[in-house]
Amino acid sequence: MADEETRETTEEGLAERKSLSRREFLKYAGLAGATVAVAGGLGGLVAACKEEETTTTTAGPTTTAGPTTTAGPTTTVVTGPEPPAKDKIVIGAARPISGVNALFEQAHFGPAYKLWVEDVNAAGGLNVAGKKMPIELKVYDDQSDLDTSMRLLTKLMEEDKVDFVFAPCSTAFLFAAAGVANAHNYILMSAEGGATTLETEMKKGKLPWFFQVLNYSNHAQMPVFAEICKELGAKTTSVMYIDDLHGIEYQSQWQVYAASAGIEILSNTAVPPGIKDVSSIIKKIQQENPDIVCSFQYPPENILTIQTMMQLNYNPKGVLVGPGGSTQAIYDIFQGGMDGCMFEGAWSPKQSPEVQAYYEKLVKYVGGKANVDFWGPLIYRAELEFFGQAIEKAATLDQAKVAEVMRTAHFKTIMSDDTFFTNQLLDVSCYAGQIGQWQNGFPQVIDPGPKRTTDKIWYPKPTWAEAPALATASTT
Amino acid sequence: MGKFALTKNRIVSLAILVVILVFLALLPTITKGYLVTLVADMMRYAVLTVAWVVFCAPTGYLSLATAAFYGLGFYVAAVFNGPLPFAVVIIIAGVVAFIVALLIGLLTLRLRGVYFTIFTFAVVLLVNNVVLEVERLVTGTRGRFVETETAQTAFYAMLVVLIATLLTAVLIRRSRYGLALQSIGEYEEAAAHSGINVVMTKVLVFATTSVFMGMAGAIIATRRTYIDPGIAFNMTTSFLPVLMAMFGGMGNLVGPVIGAAVFTYIGETLLTRFPDLYMLIFGVVLILAILFMPAGILGLGQQLWRKVKGGRRAPA
Amino acid sequence: MVVLRDIVITGLLLGGILALVSVGFSLQYGVARVLNVSHGEFIMLGAFITFWLFTSVDLNPLVSLVVTAPLIFVIGWFLHATLFRRLMNTAPALGVFEGWSMLASFGLLYVVQNLARIIWGSQTHQVIFLNRAVTGAQIPLNRLVALGVCVVVGVVFYLFLTRTRLGKAIRASAQDPTVAGMMGVNINSVLAICFGLGLAMAGIAGSLISTVYAIQTSMGLQYTVIAMIVVILGGLGSITGAMIGGVVLGIVSQLVTHFQPTMTFIAYYVIIIILLLARPKGIMGK
Predict the structure, then answer these.
(1) Is position C132 within any domain?
(2) Using the beta-carbon criterion (under 8 Å), do C132 and A310 form an inter-chain contact?
(3) Could you tell me if residue C164 is inside a domain?
(4) Scanning A375, C2, C95, C244, which has the fewest C-beta atoms within 10 Å of its C-beta?
(5) Chains contacting C with at least 3 CB pairs below 8 Å?
(6) What is the residue extent of each domain of chain A?
(7) B272 at interface of A, judged by CB pairs closer than 8 A
């Protein structure tokens, strides 16, 4: 320490004495440094580019060995596929155990995949070419941070060499993960999230390994909601949407389908995530007096919006609540107040005895009703059942072969007797429902046609004040 | 005597540095695996931390604007990578970061201490929200797709930027700017009175170090496929370099590099081994580290070394 | 006119909440010199304890203040007496201590959040309490109560600082710890009490927030950010400053939300930047 100080002072002294020459020296040194850096940079980049070429050429065969040659082996293997040498299937995932998305790992895709793995293992595992293979999970915490998530996903693929991966949480993460999956030739089935942008990328053929599972605005929910509005005779809506992926997309698709159903949008207000007071927006909507208020927002903002409507005693005839609206948690907060609210989703335990049984198992698994959501979990269950059957049918753990089966095969799952993908999107016909409504504390599917689980849609919905009374009245 | 020892030390550390750099340069040829991604990530944090330390450690101005420059790099990559060569994109990112940092530097002239810190913090949030609003109004969506590069390309680009960062850091610290920064940190008014152009020094060094943050951002963005404002201007990017610098020690430039590498490695180990308790363990480690090795890992090392040396020598 | 009245009223109500979130933060930095990044985590703790008492024993959220405030005060006092005091004694300079204590509070952030997640999970909750408007006027009762508590806390604290021996000791320590120490003030004890009080206020804020907003165990950091902004606006270490900062931000935010909601947060930061350029030490700063 003392040595350093003396050195510094002597140098300082030197600098003062021969400041000019030192300055000049520094100038030259700086110039030299800069040139070295630039030259080094260029050199490195040239090297890197060369490297890139070599890697692409080496990667070339492997990619072509992927999807294109799949048809080859499956047809040429006549003697029947050999079972894999290993004893278990390892599935990896980087999931938001902590951070802002942690709720999804706790109550959405998280319990769905863990429960499925338990069920598969209880039955001895998946039957891969005659060999029963149990599944082992390898789950890392991505802290709800995209950087961490992508690095851990890369680690799972490159270092841990897991057999399959599960998707990370939320749409932005799916976008990025689709790129990682592409680079490593891994199947990526979506979990929470999905957007029209992905569909356009898929149509361009940029995402051969990606399978979109969750339903979203354009091909599923908004057309159905427009039909429901038509059925109810609703003519006008006012929209609040979150200034984020979900909201921006839903409001734009709603504009399209509302127009085609002859529904007028009176106002369309973007709300930033994290807003702390929406009363002025609600008051404006109150003056417009639309038939239906659409709240394409995230759970905290949706809760704030409902609460503000209650406080202002504003009772529109219908309310559509975006993400969070389908959760038991939001019903637990407002109790009967949620009755009559419509939500994006959707499934209902009433659909079939199997679904009822799954619901009960899920409730037990997540420690009570409070952690059950009526949008994703049934879809995820179906996706996983589909995936398991695809592996069994492919009779191999080879990504390309399993992907090939997934693209074309039809399987029976809990959600639909005929579950299949069309252009790597889960076919619209497979879903249990698109729009739901809370009725006496029960989630009901209200899609027009056979998927509806209730006799009638509550419209106009009960007022906030009378809803709880109504709930108790109807149960007695 | 002292001088001789120092030069010897310097030769040794230079040799170590060269060995490390050669190792890093050869790494992607040795392994094609995950290590390349991990080390590239460590180098990214090393760039951010060293760049942060050069300005913030001597002056005591604790900047949280790192994410702003880093995120701008993301957007430069999203817009220009593909149409323009990767190397050009990185340079553009540096230039953009420089200009923005110059502006921020000029705005913050009167701010001191924690006010400066929170101002820079607010800048990141402001840029984040402005970009979000502009994207919504202009492109009608939230995010953008980025033309990707391979892990190897990104690795080498990051290595080059790291070397450039270290070189610049050394040059700044050894130039009159380094001394000027030191005296600004000790007593700004006195520094001004003794003829140092305080404004010029602060703003110029702040902007220069920001260049590398922008470059690091542009490189990482090409490994991401998709970016949006929340991803690009993530506050974690501002906080991590501070934590890493303190963790490693800020006395010289080796500390921040070690801090970045060790911090990333510990984080990774905990996330994969103890995903449910990651935060708890990490928090406890952080608190213990600050309690028992406040001068950082490097400080602890030096302390131990001194003890060993002191034990050998006769007490003076 | 009605619009303007509404903006002012809702702005005041929002301002009350923002001020409550920030007062404790200001106190911790102003006197104890800890830039407590984990401030928001203790707001979360207060909110979840209130929620827990509300759902398990049906305790009125206002009554639960009697539980949360003292409990979190003790935690704060203990943290300062062990962790921050040690850092203070080993740090060579005040600037160094500020850096270290911020790093340590980062550690706390991680620890508290992880513990809370283990106990309460990641689910969204809210305490529905006084969820109606004052009859005749469209003023939400839960926000009005929050504003009321904020005013009461502010007044009580002001009286405490100006009228009591301990309060005077705190003010003396804030101005010059060394001199205060020489004058016979037990500086360590005063700082620990101060830090505890700051955290207790976070607890109070949390209790009230659980009735106004949806709560999650990961919510802490966003409130720390709010506290930072409000406190910088008002002037660090000034209790009145935090109050004024909260109200100013509340009204401005309502004004902007009325015309263009997406500009709300942009407005936050633009105000901060303009204000800091005009008055580098906040509204009440000297």
Answers:
(1) no
(2) yes
(3) yes
(4) C2
(5) A, B
(6) 89-215+375-430, 217-344+446-475
(7) yes
